[in-house]
Amino acid sequence: MGKMENLGLLLVSTLLGAIGQLLFKYAFNNPAMLLVWLVAGLVAYGISTLLYIMVLSRVNLSWAYGIGGLSYIFATILAYTVLMENIPPLRWAGVGVIFLGVLLIGWS
What we know:
By secondary structure, the protein is mostly helical. The chain has helices at about 5-30, 35-55, 60-65, 70-80, 90-105. It has one domain. The chain has five helices and no strands.
């Protein structure tokens, strides 16, 4: 498998990890549906972990873990768009710095 395929798997893995976090947040904000959202979050996290393990068997840990920084970006975007959370400008600046770091790691 080539670098682009591994990168694609890492993107899906980190996105599923962020979705898992979103579902955990739903679970604890909706006690009537706690179990449903909690299980859904665990499933998303489980699939994310399996994909990550697949990629780790093929690439350097330092590269894969660095790309995993996208999870912060995905979680912030989901919090803003889905949960309607207010994200202060300084936090957006931090997301931008993380994005630049991920780009540098991805190109290495």
